[in-house]
Amino acid sequence: MTELDLVVRNATVVTADETIQSDIGVKDGKIVSLGPNLPAATEEIDARDKYVLPGGIDSHVHIEQDSAETGAKTAADFLSTTVSAACGGTTTLIPFVRQEKGQSLREAVNTYRARPEGKAVIDYALHLIITDPSANVLNQEIPALIEDGYTSIKVYMTYRAMMLSDYQILEVMSVARRHGALVMVHAENADCITWLTEKLLESGRVAPKFKAVAHQPAVEREATHRAITLGEISDTPILIVHVASGEAAEMIRWAQSRGLKVIGETCPQYLFLTEADLDKEGLEGAKSLCAPPPGSPENREALWQAMSNGVFEIYSSDHAAFRYDDAHGKFVNGPNPSFNRITNGVPGVETRMPLLFSEALKGDRIDLNRFVAVTATNPAKTYGLFPRKGTIAVGSDADLVVWDPDRKVTISVDQLHDGMDYTPFDGLDVQGWPEVTISRGDIIWQGGEFTGTPGRGSFLPCDRPAPANDGDVLDDAGVPRP
Ligand code: DUC
Ligand code: ZN
């Protein structure tokens, strides 16, 4: 064999399945050998006393996507967001293409496809958000885009500008089912939120903490159950995104126990924050305000249980970069808005992995293998990127992170690279931080310096996701066979 480009030596290699001692040999961006005493390479990294894990896959991020609700502008572009991801141990992102109402889906895809060019420093795929499922979108555009590698489709049950009726969701699901795509659902009951919000505002309860009342667990539980029902009726695998309540997790567990293909995703803001973070001095609570919002401490404990026992298969950031001290960001509606007029969303693409790694090191709730599963391997399998991404194996892309398990960090915005003026996780202490990030064999983060090149990231067409790819069970009318 010609000389290796890179060897990572003396690594404690952690995958979703096992932990082994091995060197890792890299050639032309791929892992080509695993084993002891690999031959010398052009470049060498000694990973003694470190862990080497697959690069993270953050499969729920919003990049260069303005708020459909408030019109707020994101502070960060594909360059700063992908740099931030890489510095936090993530080597693949899956942001969204959002169709505007009346817009051709293909046109939306073309617009979003142009944005990372010359900027992205790591690889990326794209999900589709359908807001207008016209006959042309359903019958022509979605099937053609699935063929082109856009194999996950998100629908909203809330947000007036984006939400679909149950009928429309069934239409989208049945097209997805027929063509082998996965449907992601933002599950909250829009009318309940509107009614609760009106009552809260009428009675003067306008502070950020009342977001948790307007979006209380029953709101998510009901919509999650309804989404599961729609998936069952159309025989479509679904993924419930950013699950914030133990009650919704309970619905997912119930569906899984009935053999339905329902995947649960949760995020750092629900495992590491609570509604107390919404109740900080002045409007500081806006820094933790997202939809759904974090809930009670008991609720958070229920989510940790669902993370421990496998109900959640995916852990993503839902990164949405709207700045705090910025009239185009959180407070686009003026300086003193009621909770429902503050822009939803929190940043987290760089802190996602270190927050959970620290918990995995403790080992009480999850171990390092499960950490790898929920941060990398499961997203790769779920979205049709496995085994190219999400694991350490011969033939996979050399997307690797060398983790220093001894480094102690108190999180603060100054150390992050996401272009934001705050982090909701400010002041949290974690143990473990990425020391080196390698993307397709290139060292892009090392010794506290970003060393990658803008534009080196590639678009990843996705295969049909594993959960959506089990043959034709629909009849010619699109109705599941009995
Ligand atoms: N909620 C969403 O649904 N998307 C992005 C931000 C948020 O808080
Ligand atoms: Zn989101």
Strand content: 15-25%
Average pLDDT confidence is 96
Helix content: 25-40%
Low-pLDDT stretches are none
Total count of strands? 19
- Tell me, what's the shape? globular
CATH class of the largest domain: Alpha Beta
Q: Please state the structural category.
A: alpha/beta
Main beta-sheet annotation: 9 strands, mixed
**Terminal CA distance:** 55 Å
Architecture of the largest domain, according to CATH? Alpha-Beta Barrel
CATH homology superfamily of the largest domain: Metal-dependent hydrolases
What assembly state would you assign to the polypeptide chains in this entry? Answer: single chain
Radius of gyration: 22 Å
| CATH topology group of the largest domain | TIM Barrel
What ligand species are in this complex?
dihydropyrimidine-2,4(1H,3H)-dione, zinc ion
Whole-number total of structural domains: 2
Helix segment count? Answer: 12
